[in-house]
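Local shape tokens:
==================
===
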Amino acid sequence: WTGGAYGVGERMPIKATRSLLRAALDGSLKSAQFRTDANFGFAVPTSVEGVDSSILDPRGTWADKTAYDVQAAKLVQMFIDNFETFEDHVDGSVLAAAPALRDAAE
């Protein structure tokens, strides 16, 4: 979803999804610039050909930034809680890459 939670926002445009997938498969993402997601810590491209760059920053698409922050923190906590089951079975590098709750979003 982009622009808000289910019922407020809208589905990610299929054209954007296809463009992102195409860029991943053809290798053009390798030359893209990236930012680090404040909640999950993974790299997110800042622009991709055929994709409105505004949707690459999900928080920016939400009118209610506080609602986004609350929802993102909830999702991060869900990942943390679920991952506890697997912590004893993964390498330290995997643990270091796991999402963590942070004081504030970007």
Summary: Strands lie at 34-36, 43-45. The helical segments are 14-26, 58-61, 65-83, 92-97.
